[in-house]
Amino acid sequence: MIVTYSSSTSDRRVLVTGATGMVGGEIALELHRAGYDVTALARPASDRSHLLSGEITFAEGDVTDQNAVRQAMEGQDLVCHAAALVPGSGADEDGFNRVNVSGTRIVCEAAIKAGVSRLLHVSTVHVFGIHPGQRVDETATPSEPPHPGYDASKARAESAVLEFAAKSLDAVVVNPTVVFGPRSRHSGRLINMFLRGRLPIIPLPNRVLSLVYSRDVARGARMALETGEQGERYILAGPSVSVREFIDTLAQVSGRRAPRISLPGWAAAAGVAALWGVSPVTRWKPPVTVAGVRRGGTVYEGERATRELGLRYTPLEDALRTTAEWLQRPE
Predict the structure, then answer these.
(1) Is the separation of the CB atoms in 192 and 327 below 8 Å?
(2) pLDDT higher for 33 or 189?
(3) Are the CB atoms for 56 and 26 separated by under 8 Å?
(4) Which domain holds residue 40?
(5) Is residue 331 part of a domain?
(6) Which residue, 2, 157, 259, 278, has most beta carbons within 10 Å?
(7) Is residue 61 within 8 Å of 41, Cβ to Cβ?
(8) What CATH number is associated with residue 104?
(9) pLDDT tens by residue, 104-131
(10) What's the CA gap between 216 and 174, in Å, rounded?
(11) 236 close to 210: Cβ distance less than 8 angstroms
(12) pLDDT for the residue 117
């Protein structure tokens, strides 16, 4: 049975995991602006400077610590689970499984014991698989096993949440595509390279990108928490654009000139492979992987979130302008 949850004025206390990260931080701030009483589960040494001092309560610990999660969950009405190890974090297979899979189970079990009204899980479009050149919505299934590491761990984590949702936990899932915005690290590297004058060519100019602005993810997460259907998934993805359109728009909002030279797929794959080959010496990692070059081009559709949740995506020009301004701010 599909159940629609609707928040009441009494269900205002929410625990956010992963609030020290880009996505989790935006969700915590969005919930605070909407009037929620936000508690962030955070490790003692984590950077909290982006969160409102005195406005958000902190509970120390991480999602792999059962006692810390249980204590943080006490008295909460809702949970937004955004904590995860991501690509580029340096984690190995065991690390991804420990945090992304076991940590998710710990959060779900604690939520059930605490009697929270609803749990929102931040997943990824990677669980739907890679379908080059195709349009993908929430009904898609992977055509092959997920890539080991991040993809596989997030797929298992989402499966665990949906298993709990089918039994004893009111849970809903959002699946963002590649997220960019202020404080973006991995996904913001291409933007940063351009702004620093280190992108002399446009790689794969006709490749279609599925992207989503971080603040749209936060609003979509809040909307799913409030009005999403129990056990359902919502892809969060803005209108797709080509790499050339993306770079041209970035050039327009930043006042910089876009590269005139472009690089086709075969050449881009060879170049990226060479850069990764020397990365142990240069200590610089390219903003994309060889697999990403060869297997990209899937168009993820975020219309369901618009249709059912009421999410309106920020125009690319506005989102890139805000992102560029943040990246170019004085340190």
Answers:
(1) yes
(2) 33
(3) no
(4) 13-180+213-237+299-313
(5) no
(6) 157
(7) yes
(8) 3.40.50.720
(9) 999 999 999 999 999 999 999 999 988 8
(10) 12
(11) no
(12) 96
Q: Which residue has the tokens 């059962």?
A: 66
Q: Domain count of the chain?
A: 1
- The answer to whether 172 touches 7, Cβ cutoff 8 Å, is no
Q: What share of the chain is helix, strand, coil (3-state, %, to 5)?
A: 40, 15, 40
Query: How many whole angstroms from its chain centre is CA 139?
Result: 20
Residue 161, token pair as written in the block: 């949440």
- The pair phi, psi for residue 36, each rounded to 5°, is -80, 150
- Flag whether the pTM goes above 0.85: yes
Distance CA 220, CA 312 (A): 9
138, 207, 224, 260, 318 from 14: Cα distances, Å: 27, 39, 14, 48, 29
Contact 104, 157 (CB under 8 A): yes
Rounded to 10°, the helix 103-114/66-73 angle is 40
State pLDDT tens for residues 25-69. Answer: 999 999 999 999 999 999 988 888 888 777 899 999 999 999 999
The token pair at 130 is 């890679």
Q: In the chain, pLDDT over 90 holds for what percent of residues? A: 67
